[in-house]
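The protein record filed here:
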Amino acid sequence: MKRTSNLPRPARWLWAMPNLALICFLAVGVALLLFIRNNERQRQHDELVEAVLWQDRALRAELTARQKQLEGMAHDLVRGDISEGAFYGRAADIMTSSPEVLAIAYTNEFGDAVWSYPAQSMAPLQMVPAVIEPLQRSARIGIASSTPPFDFPGAGQAVALSFPAVQGNRTLGAFVAIVSLKGLLRNYVPWWIAKRFQLGIVNLDGDTLAARPEQPLPDAGPLSYDVALDPPGYGLRLRARIFLTGWPLWQHALYWVLAGLSALMLWSLWVLKRHMRERLTAERAMLREMNMRQALEDSLVSGVFATDREGRTLHVNPAFCRMVGFEAEELLGGTPPFPYWAPETTNQCAQIFAAILRGECPMNGFSLRYQRKSGERFDVRLYSSPLIDGEGRHTGWVASMTDVTELKREREALKASHERFVAVLNGLDAAVAVTDRRNGELLLSNRAFREAFRLTAPDGPLCALPLRHADPGGEWFDPVLGRWYQHHRRETLWVDQSRVWLDIATDVSERKQAADRERQQTEKLQQTARLIAMGEIASSLAHELNQPLAAISSYSTACRNLVASRQLRPEELDGALDKISEQARRAGAIIRGIREFVQKREPKRSVCRVGDLLDTVLSLLAAPLNRHFVRLVEIRVADDTELFADRVMLEQVLFNLCKNAIEAMVEGPQERCELTVETRTRGDWLDMIVADRGPGIASDDVEKLFRPFYTTKAEGMGMGLNICRTIVEHHQGRLAVEAREGGGSRFVVSLPLATQPIFKETEHHAV
C-alpha cells in the first residue's frame, strides 16, 4: 500500500519556498566568497612557488660559486702556484666577500687539516664521523662532495663543500669550505621575499636547520612549498610558507551584507511561520499518527484485515497481501466466500468467519488452511477482536493471522529427528546417560542404561547413582550387579546451555573374564615351558650336584681317617668341616635355584642385579654348552646395573633365548658354534643381547616368530618366544630380533632402568 500525506499542496509550497530561497541565497553568497578566497589563495601560492624557485636558483648559484673557488685553489695547488701564505690570503678574501663561509681548509686524505683558516676550524668536524667521512672520500678518490648538516660552534647548522686536488693519478688532498646555513639565508634572501614569506632549510625529518625569520617552520601544508636543495643534498629542502594576512576590507563588508540579508530573510520566514503554525501543528499531528500506524502495519509479519459488521473487507495490510498473493485492490470490498479460501476448507472457513462476526473467538484462535493466488496451500492461526470507532461504536471486526506452515513442518521434522535420535540411542549396546553437573539429576538415558541399572522410572528428577563414583575414562566394578564397565565421562553443554556430564558405560565383563582365562593359560604355558626346560637340563643337574656331593664324601672320608689314626689336630678338622659346609651350601643353592625356576607363583618384583641374573642362567646352561661343544662369549659391561623386576621371569626369558640359540647351532659346523651374551646400558635403558651363529631367520618368518603356537622345530610347542615377549612387555620393555652380521640371529631384550616400581603390580583377580 502506498503511503500518502494529507498535508495540502499549497501549504507545503508556502512552507518550502522561504527555506529554499534562503538556502539558495546563502549557498550563492558562500560560494562567491569561497571562490574569491580560493583565487586569492591560488595567487598567493603561485607567488610562493615562484619565489621559492627563484631563491633556490640563487642559493644554488652561490654554493656553486663556492665550489668553483675551491676548484680554482685545487688547480693552483696542482700547478704549484699556491703556497701556505697564498692559501691564507685567498681564504681571507673568500670569507670577506662571502660572509656565509665560516672556514676554509686544505686537508689530506684522512680529513686532517694541513692548512686551515681560521686555525683549528676543522677540529669540530673530526668529532662527527658522518661529516668527516665524505671529506675523506673526496680526498681519497678525487671527487667533489658535500657533507650532511652538522652543528658548528657559534654558527649553528652548517655544511662542508669539498673539492679534491688531483695530480695525474694521485690525489694530493682536498680543499674544504664550511658554509653556514643561516648565513646563506641571511645574505642571499632579498628583502622583498623575506617580507612576504618565511624561508628555511629543513632536513628529512622536517626539523628546521635555519630560517629567516628565525623561528621553526611548520610541517608541509597548503600554505607552504618545498624544493630539494642540491648541493649539498642529503635530503635538505628549501621550504617557504606564506605569512597569514587578514582578509581585505571589501571582503569583510561583503560578509556583513550577506549576514544582514540572511537575518532579514529569517525574520520574514518567522513571520510567515507564525501565521501557519496552528494549522501546520494539527496537520503534523494527524500525519504523524497516520505514519506511525502505517509503519506499524508495514513492519508486521502477521496479516491484518478489517471488515464491517456484515463481513465486507475494509482494510488489508501488506503482510496479508503477501501471504495470500492478492493485491489490496482485489480484496477491498469483497464479501464471503473470499478467493483465498481453499475449496476443500470452504465450509470450515465459512463457519469460523460466521463465529467471528458473532464475536465468538477462543483465546488460542482458530486454525485454518488458506490458499494463495498460485493455488499453494498454507496453514494459519487466526485471532479477532472488535473494531471500535472514535465515538465508541462497534463498526466491525479486526483479525490477524500468522503463517504457521513452516512452524508445523519444523515441529514435524523435529519430532521425526527426535524419534530417529532415540531409536539410534536405544540401539546402542553401551549405556548412555546425561546428568546435571550440579545436582546429579538424570536428564536423558537410553534403553541400555535403564536395563543395565534397572531403572524403571522415565528420565526425570532422580539421581544417577550408578555412575556417580566412577573413575572417568577407566574401568569400574558394579558391586550390586557384579558387572565390569568401561566408563567414559565428558563435560558438555546441554540444550539449555547448562553444564552436564555425558557418561558412556560399556559392559566389558565378558572381555575381563576372557582376559583372565587367557592370563591363566599363559601362566600354565610358562610353567610348562619351565618344566620342559628342566627336563632338557636334567643331565646338567646330575653333573652340577655330583661335584659338591663327591667333595663332601671325600672330606668326610678324610675326617674319618684322621680320627682313626689318632693324629687328629683341631685346625685340620675345622678346615675339612668348613669345606664340607661350603659344598653343602653349594648343592643347596643349586637345588634352590632349580626349585625357584620351576615353581608356580605370583609375579614378585624386587631390585635385582644384572650380573646375578646371567650367572644363574649360565650355570643352568653349563651342561648343554659342554654337550654340544658351544663356545660362550660374554660381553658383560652392565653387570652392576640394577633392575626393579621379577628375577625368575627374566631368568626364564634369558634361558629360553640362550637355549634356542644353542639348538639353532646344533646341526651346523662345530667351528661356528658360538653363543654371545652381551649386556649394555643405553641412556635410561638396559639391553641384554643373545646372539648365535646359526642359519638365521627368514624375513618372512620374523613377523610370525612371536605368534602363539608358531614353531620351526619338529618337537616345539611354539610358545617360548611368545611367553618371552609377554614377560618383557609386562616389564614395560621390548623384545626384537634382527639378523647378525656374518650369519646368525640377535635377540635384543630392552628394559627400562628403575630402582623403584614403575607401575602397580597386576593382581590376578578383578580389581
Summary: The longest strand covers residues 156-167. Residues 1-11, 758-767 have pLDDT under 50 and may be disordered.
